[in-house]
Design brief:
The complex is a heterodimer of chains A (424) and B (319).
Chain A: H1 2-27, E1 29-35, H2 39-55, E2 59-65, H3 73-81, E3 88-91, H4 94-102, H5 110-116, H6 124-129, E4 131-132, E5 135-136, E6 138-145, E7 148-151, H7 153-158, H8 168-172, H9 175-180, E8 185-187, H10 197-217, H11 226-240, H12 247-252, H13 255-263, E9 268-272, H14 276-283, E10 294-297, E11 309-318, H15 325-336, H16 338-346, H17 363-373, E12 377-379, H18 381-384, H19 387-402, H20 409-423
Parallel strand pairs in A: 1-2, 1-3, 8-9, 11-12
Antiparallel strand pairs in A: 3-11, 4-5, 6-11, 7-9, 7-10
Helix pairs in contact in A: 2-16, 10-11, 19-20
Chain B: H1 8-11, H2 34-63, E1 66-67, E2 75-76, H3 80-85, H4 89-120, H5 128-139, H6 142-153, H7 160-167, H8 181-196, H9 198-209, H10 213-221, H11 226-237, H12 239-254, H13 258-263, H14 275-285, H15 289-315
Helix pairs in contact in B: 2-15, 4-8, 4-9, 4-12, 5-9, 6-8, 9-12, 12-15, 14-15
The chains are: A alpha/beta (424), B mainly alpha (319).
Chain lengths: 424, 319
């Protein structure tokens, strides 16, 4: 009798458990997100996930992290080739987005974009840079201004300037007085790996506008195009005006050395690199944004493209291989919402979403957002070019700054063009 | 009351340990031929080796015959990747750089390690801490060593080396060490040698310690000076240890990647790009898997060419 009662209770318990499990399985659906991001970038993702799950208790986001050194595309490719089937993945290279699209991994979210009204959250230029061959596969959620020049305002005051120079000629004219004021080199040019290309890329934008950058990135025009020649000539003017130390110093300098040279050693004045300097200056150098250090808008060339910006961006792409596309779309929508955008801003990042409360930004971040909102944006060229061309492009520019003469412009661009011919 | 049964030994019956047969009789059980036994004992190792080494090598060889770009569809190119490699000036340049780097690191680290070992042999106990400290560098990963030396070679006054040069009045020699093609390669060799010197020291010291004391005492009694003893006795008799050190350092330098990645990233302008780094760049950065695999196979052949004579020499005479 007793044994029969125990059996009944056990059966009932088991039944309840099974029922509960089934109910649970029905109520929570998993969204898988593949990323290589770590550190603060990962923390902001975690915060977004927490906010999203609080709003959608029936959805759970599982983040699968690819560990990678150097170029993270290798790790992402390996994971995807190895059978990962995420609903979403993070990306920062338009060239990689194209590769993923060609491999039929991505899902076109154009209908979702319209249905959810993302045009209200993202300006047209953000949609433009998120478009590959007419399709939109996701949304940019974090961006960094890459056409800004980091400097110490007090250095400019020292040579009688009250504000950052607005024209390229005025900017070049600061080099001589800065040297006379005791600085070893006005620009800390980090040419060890890639950062020497930043100056060239914004000059390219200032010379020929966003369409030139897009067309060059897609190799719809040749590298020997007169506009590219002109951009490189403008780049050479920096060296003519004695912007930098000797080539060996530039080749030995990475962006962190350059930042140290400006903010710690006080030997140099200008550095063009991404927004991560903001966090470094605050946390590592203990400087006050807007006062001890500032971000100047890249000076104008007067060709009609002086408000356009080069940016880097992290985007969230939707895939067609995951099991929960509806959930993925809801997460994309959440990222652009005021809650999502403010979460990003509170984490110290800038977001393209118009729903953000701009008062959250510190003065430097706010300035970068203001500059970006003034015109069209394009990705850094290094992120747009195919992998095999990026190395050759940076190397050719690296060698150009060793001999930045008019005579070396054509051979440099011909060399990049030859590599482009093989890469596409 | 005495036992009726006498003890086995006393009874003349051979002593038999419980459960086993007599030691005088052949043991019963499965009698396998020597070769079969050896093979059975080696089977786990062979299996593990096949999974972790043989299979990846075969797979790499297979991939090297294909052109695989990113996530795109692979296409069979036969020996095309190899033909392209040997007409690629970048790859040929990395072969040359690898050769200089490998010889440089081997010569510098083995010479220094061997010389220190010989010196330490005169006072082994007193120099044990010193040897331990040098050997400790061998335990530091190459990537960490690279980061340590980045701080030393940094441009400007922030670099330790430039700072020291300036402090001792040799400021005119201060320079961006990693910014020149030659100085960057030298800096790379110095860093890798620093990282590698512990092994030659350990192996050479073990060889010197193995020299019979009587030989050294006899030479001393005959009036040999320390330098003569070092040159005529210790150097030739510690040669086997140094030879192993040369072999191991050659192999690790040929495969160098981490230290290049961290210290110079192959620059400036590819001046310090080794085959290992080229392989990484092609396979992981550009995801030209087939091309990168072909470079891997060339490197593997290089490693085999270096290691085969050494292994043959070490195993000569073994059954």
């Amino acid at each position: 009798m007793c044994s029969s009662r125990i059996s009944s209770v056990a059966a009932l318990g088991l039944g309840m458990m099974l029922l509960g499990t089934t109910a649970f399985a029905q109520s929570t659906k998993e969204i898988t997100l593949l990323t290589w991001l770590g550190g603060p970038d990962r923390k902001v993702l975690d915060s977004l996930v927490i906010g999203f799950e609080a709003k959608h208790p029936n959805l759970k986001i599982k983040i699968n992290v690819v560990t990678s050194q150097g170029d993270a595309r290798g790790g992402m490719r390996t994971a995807l080739l190895g059978g990962e089937k995420p609903d979403l993945l993070t990306n920062t290279w338009p060239a990689f987005r194209q590769e993923l699209a060609e491999a039929d991994i991505l899902r076109d979210v154009t209908p979702v974009w319209t249905e959810k009204g993302w045009d209200k959250s993202l300006a047209k230029t953000w949609r433009d840079i998120s478009t590959t061959e007419g399709s939109v596969y996701g949304i940019p959620y974090i961006f960094g201004y890459r056409s800004g020049i980091w400097h110490v305002p007090a250095d400019l005051t020292k040579i009688g300037l009250q504000a950052f120079p607005t024209s390229y000629d005025d900017f070049l004219a600061t080099f001589d007085p800065l040297r006379k004021a005791g600085f070893a080199e006005p620009i800390a040019m980090p040419a060890k790996v890639y950062a020497h290309a930043e100056w060239f890329e914004t000059l390219l934008m200032r010379t020929g506008g966003p369409s030139l950058v897009t067309d060059l990135g897609a190799h719809k025009i040749a590298w020997t195009d007169p506009k590219v020649v002109e951009a490189l000539r403008q780049y050479a003017r920096l060296f003519d005006a004695k912007c930098c130390g000797d080539s060996r110093l530039m080749y030995a300098t990475h962006w962190d050395d350059a930042a140290d040279r400006i903010f710690v050693e006080r030997k140099a004045n200008f550095l063009q690199i991404g927004m991560w300097i903001n966090a470094r200056a605050i946390s590592q150098y203990h400087l006050k944004p807007g006062t001890d250090f500032a971000l100047g808008k890249f000076p104008a060339l007067g060709r009609g493209f002086d408000n356009a910006s080069i940016i880097d961006a992290k985007e969230m792409l939707a895939t067609g291989i995951g099991e929960n596309p509806e959930g993925a779309d809801l997460f994309l929508d959440y990222i652009l919402s005021a809650d999502g955008a403010n979460t990003i801003a509170k984490a110290g990042f800038t977001t393209p979403s118009a729903n953000v409360d701009a008062s959250i930004y510190d003065p430097v971040a706010a300035a970068s957002v203001r500059f970006v909102n003034e015109g069209d944006v394009r990705f850094v060229l290094g992120d747009m070019l195919p992998g095999s061309l990026v190395d050759e492009y940076r190397l050719a520019l690296q060698q150009f700054i060793g001999n930045p003469t008019d005579a070396n412009i054509k051979p440099t661009l011909e060399r990049i063009e030859a590599a482009a011919g093989r890469a596409y | 009351m005495a036992s009726a049964k006498p003890h086995a030994r006393e009874s003349g019956v051979p002593f038999t340990p419980t459960g086993t047969g007599s030691p005088n009789r052949p043991r019963r059980g499965l009698a396998l031929p020597e070769w079969t036994t050896a093979f059975l004992l080696l089977t786990p190792v062979i299996l593990l080796f096949s999974i972790s080494v043989i299979y990846p090598v075969i797979e790499t060889v297979r991939i090297s015959f294909w052109e695989i770009r990113g996530l795109g569809r692979p296409s069979f190119v036969g020996l095309g990747n190899y033909a392209r490699l040997f007409s690629d000036p970048v790859f040929l340049g990395t072969l040359w750089t690898t050769l200089i780097f490998t010889l440089g690191v081997t010569i510098v680290s083995v010479s220094i390690g061997w010389f220190i070992a010989l010196l330490c042999a005169f006072a082994p106990r007193q120099t044990s801490i010193f040897r331990l400290m040098i050997f400790a560098t061998f335990g530091i990963s190459e990537a960490v060593a690279g980061y340590i030396w980045i701080g030393i070679f940094r441009p400007g006054d922030a670099g330790l080396l430039n700072g020291i040069l300036t402090a001792i009045g040799l400021g005119e020699f201060a320079q961006p060490w990693l910014g020149g093609a030659n100085s960057a390669l030298i800096a790379l060799i110095v860093t890798a040698s620093w990282s590698a010197v512990g092994l030659p020291l350990l192996l050479s010291f073990a060889s010197v310690q193995a020299i019979p004391r009587s030989i050294l005492e006899a030479a001393y009694m005959d009036g040999a000076k320390p330098l003569t003893m070092m040159w005529h006795i210790m150097v030739p008799l510690s040669l086997p240890g140094a030879r192993v050190a040369v072999f191991l350092t050659l192999l690790s330098s040929l495969r160098a990647f981490d230290i290049v990645f961290v210290l110079t990233a192959g620059g400036p302008a590819r001046a310090t790009e080794t085959v290992g780094f080229f392989m990484y760049r092609e396979s992981m950065t550009q995801f030209n898997l087939g091309y990168g695999a072909a470079a891997t196979i060339i490197l593997l052949i290089g490693v085999l060419l270096v290691s085969t004579p050494a292994i043959a020499q070490r195993t000569r005479g073994a059954k």
